[in-house]
Specification:
Elements: H1 19-37, H2 41-52, H3 60-73, H4 76-88, H5 95-100, H6 111-127, H7 133-150, H8 153-160, H9 165-192, H10 197-213, H11 217-232, H12 238-251, E1 262-264, E2 271-273, H13 282-288, H14 294-298, H15 307-328
Antiparallel strand pairs: 1-2
């Protein structure tokens, strides 16, 4: 069900409302999602609607999730309301996701379903009118190869443990696919540069980003100028560029700039923010890159962002990362 848009949707924070409203909105969305995970769909739907009253620029992903939750709760009218909104106003075009989402099954027999599917298909066709179909087909396969194995990480770790032979086998498969995907993407980028988004679409752009994001430092250094140019020309979302740049900075032994990179230690299931430069002003930089605030990002793990406390812990975090990196290279 859940439509994350973590790679393609640009979250605009603080455009409307106060910081207090923004924090309350984020907390309610987090609470609503937890209720959904607990299958209390009616309560979850109520919390989502309460959150939507606090914010004007509701992210597409939140509206879609709310539609699914309403459908699961039996609220067909509210589900269609949100789906038609993202279709008409936000020009949502992910037709395949819509028709294959089992959480919306209740809506299929409603006469509005045909109207909705026609709208989303129309958006899809309009968006793809100038696409390079052959290139998109190649990128779609690369995307599947990149994501299909990674989608098994959580379930495999939960079932067998982080240090199990099953996890080792899964990571070997992931790394093998990453190597093959990098060869394919390198051929594309070296031959034609970064393709414009009106040629490959959001999914195609995300695919290129993912492969470089998962590549080694040598490849990231090679394509840094190309990705910077693509970001400046509007062909790579700033949000994705921020994630790429942070990872590269950490690999260089420097601090990240936007706070997008977290890690989970072996002795704890909760993540921590990897070394970050100028923590007190990170939210300003994040918002400029289309990211939400640090606190909003950490809400999903029920963590509190305290810049002053982080600054105190930073030397220990850096020492820990330095030791881990040294161990990897030995």
């Amino acid at each position: 069900m859940k439509y994350f848009f973590t790679l393609t949707f640009i979250y605009i924070a603080f455009k409307f409302g106060s910081a207090q409203n923004q924090n309350s909105y984020s907390q309610l969305i987090n609470k609503g999602w937890q209720l959904c995970l607990n299958k209390d769909y009616k309560a979850s739907a109520d919390v989502y609607e309460k959150a939507f009253k606090l914010k004007n620029d509701i992210p597409l992903s939140h509206r879609y999730n709310a539609a699914c939750i309403h459908a699961l709760a039996g609220h067909k009218d509210r589900a269609f309301h949100h789906l038609f909104f993202i279709g008409h106003t936000l020009k949502w075009s992910d037709y395949n996701h819509l028709i294959n989402d089992s959480d919306l099954r209740l809506l299929h027999q409603d006469k509005r379903w045909e109207e909705l599917t026609k709208l989303i298909l129309k958006n899809k066709n309009e968006e793809e009118v100038h696409f390079d179909k052959d290139l998109v087909r190649i990128l779609d396969q690369i995307y599947f190869d990149d994501q299909s194995t990674r989608n098994s990480i959580k379930s495999t770790e939960k079932q067998f443990g982080r240090d199990s032979k099953e996890m080792d086998a899964l990571w070997k498969d992931i790394l093998k696919r990453d190597s093959i995907n990098l060869i394919k993407v390198s051929h594309i980028l070296d031959a034609q540069g970064w393709p414009p988004k009106d040629k490959i679409g959001k999914r195609g752009t995300s695919t290129l980003f993912l492969v470089i994001q998962h590549a080694d430092q040598e490849a990231q250094e090679k394509y840094l100028p190309l990705m910077t140019k693509a970001m400046n020309n509007g062909h790579l979302p700033k949000r994705q560029y921020a994630m790429f740049y942070d990872r590269l900075m950490l690999r260089r032994g420097k601090r990240q700039v936007y706070g997008t990179q977290l890690a989970i230690s072996k002795d704890s299931e909760k993540p921590y923010v990897l070394p970050l430069d100028e923590p007190k002003t990170v939210d300003k930089r994040r918002i400029e890159m289309g990211l939400n605030t640090m606190q909003e990002n950490l809400n999903r793990w029920n963590l509190i962002w305290d810049a002053e406390e982080y600054i105190k812990r930073l030397p220990k975090i850096e020492a820990k990362e330095k030791a881990l990196n040294a161990k990897k290279h030995n």
